[in-house]
Amino acid sequence: MSSHEAEILVECHQVGQEFAARGGNAVRALDSVDLQVRRGETLGLVGESGCGKSTLARAIMLLRQPSSGHIEFDGRRMDTVRGRELKRQRQRMQMVFQDPNDSLDPTYTVARSIMEPLLASGRSMAEARNEARAAILEVGMTEEVLSLHPHEFSGGQRQRIAIARALATHPEFMVLDEPTSALDVSIQAQILNLLARLQRERNLTYLFISHNLGVVRHLADRVAVMYLGRVVEIGPTAEVFNNPQHPYTKALLSAVPDPEDTTTERIVLTGDLPSPRKRYTGCAFAARCWLASEKCRTERPELTEPEDGSATQRSACHHSELVALPVHAPSFA
């Protein structure tokens, strides 16, 4: 079964997130996000800092209630789940942060850190110890580390411990929020290989957030591109990387070094930087886009819906058919 045909595990429906701000308009971190993550796949989520990637991840993980819209997990609306059922659902979803210290208490031993969510879910002490031992072995460490504290390990080892903690509850879905960006390149490769192996062995589903497009290209089955709180392009990784349909995607990809391609020029975006406080009537990218027309400035583009259902790549651009043209081609302005 292809990833396009696989069952949907996580689905965002028009998810919005606003934060109060001094002096007027609220900050809109997420703007009507529709997104699907299919069982067994890795969906890469990319975009500039501040575009809403981590905010979306935290909404999906129920760490923050969205201001609007809702999230479904395995067909169940999560805003309707309460009590013990909510606790059970949380066990099926786990998150690995960029900094393992965000999930590891420095005063706890490794064993206690891994056991904590298990004990909270009702496991006995003996069961929790066995699960902790199995999880630490699964990430390539020995059970002797269970009696040690996080400060006694390197960054890569601490990330393995954080992954073990996430694995211990036997989740089906994991959000990986920049899990390798703070590590040396050689250690990054080890952690990425570990995550790929765990996914194969456990049939895990990943939402992989990263600034490193090279890593996303290697690891992800599909990729979603975010800009100012919206998904502006989504599709199979190879299609998006080889034939971007949104100008912002093209600009992002132009910054990725490719030793086999010496013809692609780096696209340096100019124009006014977008503000999450501003309410745009048209495309928020228009002020920085070389293809922007009057329509772009007055009509908000939505993600395309293919008429025959055959295409899997979608973009929110009025002029997606022109993105492949040279950047210096005449605009409509």
Which word captures the global form? globular
Please state the structural category. alpha/beta
Number of helices: 10
Distance between the termini: 45 Å
Poorly predicted segments? none
Strand order of the largest sheet: 6-7-8-3-9-10-11
Short description, anyone?
The protein is an alpha/beta fold. Helix content is 30%, strand content 20%.
Please give a structural write-up.
This protein starts with 7 loop residues before the first strand and ends in an 18-residue tail after the last strand. Helix content is 30%, strand content 20%. The protein has a domain at 245-322. The strands form two sheets. It has a seven-stranded mixed beta sheet, with helices on both faces. The longest helix is centred in the middle third of the chain and has 18 residues, at 185-202. The radius of gyration is 21 Å and the shape is globular. With 333 residues, it is α/β, with parallel strands linked by helices. Helix 3 packs across helix 4 (125-138). The chain has helices spanning 53-60, 83-91, 110-120, 125-138, 155-167, 185-202, 213-219, 237-242, 247-254, 294-298; strands at 8-19, 27-38, 42-46, 68-73, 76-77, 93-96, 173-177, 205-209, 222-227, 230-236, 314-315.
Question: How would the blueprint of this fold be written?
Answer:
Elements: E1 8-19, E2 27-38, E3 42-46, H1 53-60, E4 68-73, E5 76-77, H2 83-91, E6 93-96, H3 110-120, H4 125-138, H5 155-167, E7 173-177, H6 185-202, E8 205-209, H7 213-219, E9 222-227, E10 230-236, H8 237-242, H9 247-254, H10 294-298, E11 314-315
Helix pairs in contact: 3-4, 3-5, 4-5
